[in-house]
Amino acid sequence: MTDYEIVDTNAENIGRCSICGRKDANNLGHRRKAEWLRERYAEGLRFKVLRSRRFGDIGWIEYAPGNHAWRPVEAEGYLVIHCLMVLGKHTGKGLGTLLLDSCLKDAKKSKCRGVAVVTSSDALMARRDLFIKAGFVPVDSSPPYELLVKKLKRAAPNPRFIVQRERLLKKHKKGLTILAADQCPMVPKCMTDIAEMSRAVGLEPKVVRVRSAKASRELPTPYGVFSIIYDGKLIAGRPVSASGFMSIMRRHSALAGELWQQWIAARRCWNITRKIAKPASGVDG
Fold first, then answer.
1. What is the DSSP secondary structure assignment for residue 149, as one 8-state letter?
2. Is the pLDDT confidence value at 270 over 80?
């Protein structure tokens, strides 16, 4: 593995690293994620970048102590992996295992109970195969999500999901509410696009920024950093595009007939406006 190195980022060097495939430091998702990371390092969060001599930054892993994890899990004494990814053309080379081993070494060095991770078949979450191969086992589930753990202390209690859906749904029982954190660099753009599209048809969203690990653990899905609630119902528990959001709203609301046509017309105008306004450099935000 001499062609690769793992860069342990910090507040000083994160500005020189790409983030989850995003290289443009002016990109809204990249910028907010970098700011979010700078605020999290003091809490023990680790964000490591796998760097190839030939291709640059091609992989990433992020994890935090259980009491500072941005996932709705109870995992005191564990490290909790938020995400692990390797760019598509570099998969199948054992690089995901290289990143995971780095986390496991940190857990052993810190005398943790073990390492936990939320997995899903969803494209935005780590899939279970890599972890099962490394000796992780399932200990809890909230379909389509699964909580896996690799214990370093056999007698340690199992981590578990602490999803409290009903409390938050009751709190936001009227109108459209978007709850979002900057932990995922996809979230800011999704949040902005959905809010703009909603306003185009006269539906004013309430945007709630999730600013702490404690607040993220109160979200109504195991994803933990993004949710959309409409009239007290959870309609999305992960980032979705503006068009995906529109399709969801059609299923979950009374938008039909003339109002639905208004929504479609607004979408067309919105797409045209964004194409005209988009900078030539491709900078987002």
1. E
2. no
| Shared-domain flag, residues 211 and 233 | yes
Q: Which residues of 196-222 are buried (b: 16+ CB within 10 A; e: fewer)?
A: ebbebbebebeebebeebebbbbbbbb
Give CA–CA dist 96/128, Å, rounded.
12
Give the list of residues 6+ apart from residue 221 with CB closer than 8 angstroms, or none.
72, 142, 145, 163, 165, 227, 234, 237, 238
Residue 177: phi and psi, rounded to 5, are -125, 130
Q: What CA–CA distance (Å, rounded) separates 38 from 165?
A: 30
Question: CA-CA distance, 140 to 134, in Å (whole number)?
Answer: 18
**One-letter amino acid of 266:** A
pLDDT digits (tens, 9 = 90+) for 54-98: 999 999 999 999 999 999 999 999 999 999 999 989 989 999 999
CB 1 within 8 A of CB 98: yes
User: Do 61 and 130 reside in the same domain of the chain?
Assistant: yes
Claim to verify: residue 170 and residue 257 sit in the same structural domain: yes
For residue 178, list its beta bridge partners: 207, 228
Residue 222 is given by DSSP the state T
Q: Assign residue 151 the CATH number of its domain.
A: 3.40.630.30
Residues in contact with 276: Cβ distance below 8 Å, sequence separation at least 6, in sequence order? none
Residue type, 141: S
In degrees to the nearest 10, what's the CA dihedral of 70, 190, 18, 105?
A: 20
